[in-house]
Design brief:
disordered N terminus, globular, alpha+beta, 3 helices, Cyclophilin, eight-stranded antiparallel beta barrel, single chain, about 190 residues, Peptidyl-prolyl cis-trans isomerase, E_coli_cyclophilin_A-like, Cyclophilin-like_dom_sf
Length: about 190
């Protein structure tokens, strides 16, 4: 029995050692926690954490929402002004991770290696974003807590925003009030 308990404890410790960095996204609609996958998307995770650690995601917007598809944010302040970016990161979409519901991925332009600070969370399975023969969109983590917050976000009406010259902009602002790295061992509630 003692041997079995030691084996179980060892497996639990090994599982927690394999867990990637965790980040908390506090929004005006509730809190999400994401776990990042450093082993599959090291450049994307390092890039995302750079913005987390410098505090520049704080008081930014989820500026794009397409129910049943994605909610996208991190690139604009609450006045819909673009936020400064670091250099783009290489595309890591061929990393074996897929754009499944609840995963977090890098937004980019038509240039596969153009991702900077904007990210999105998949609201459904979006396998077409994986790319196939072309470069897709890099998945670098997954939501581990706060699925109900994503469901609430998906209910927010959207429309055209003339300042952004964009459709699918939430009519009620969805604000990323605070984004912070969690200490190792902080668990999803």
């Amino acid at each position: 029995m003692k041997r079995l308990l030691l084996l179980a404890a060892g497996l639990l410790m090994a599982g927690s050692a394999l867990a990637g960095p965790r980040v908390e996204l506090v929004t005006n609609m509730g809190t999400l926690q994401v776990e990042l996958n450093e082993s599959s998307a090291p450049a994307s995770v390092a890039n995302f954490l750079r913005y987390v650690d410098d505090g520049s995601y704080n008081n930014s917007l989820f500026h794009r929402l397409i129910p049943g598809f994605v909610v996208q944010g991190g690139g604009f302040d609450t006045d819909h002004e673009p936020l400064p970016t670091y250099a783009p990161v290489i595309n890591e979409s061929g990393n074996g991770l897929s754009n499944l519901s609840g995963t977090i991925a890098m937004a980019r332009t038509q240039d596969p290696d153009s991702a900077t600070r904007q990210f999105y969370i998949n609201l459904s399975d979006n396998l077409s974003l994986d790319g196939g023969r072309k470069a897709g969109y890099t998945v670098f983590g997954r939501v581990i807590d706060g699925e109900q917050v994503l469901q609430q976000m998906a209910q927010v009406p959207t429309g055209m925003n003339l300042k952004l010259r964009a459709r699918d902009v939430p009519e009620q602002p969805i604000i990323l009030q605070q984004v912070r790295r969690l200490a190792h061992g902080d668990a999803a509630h």
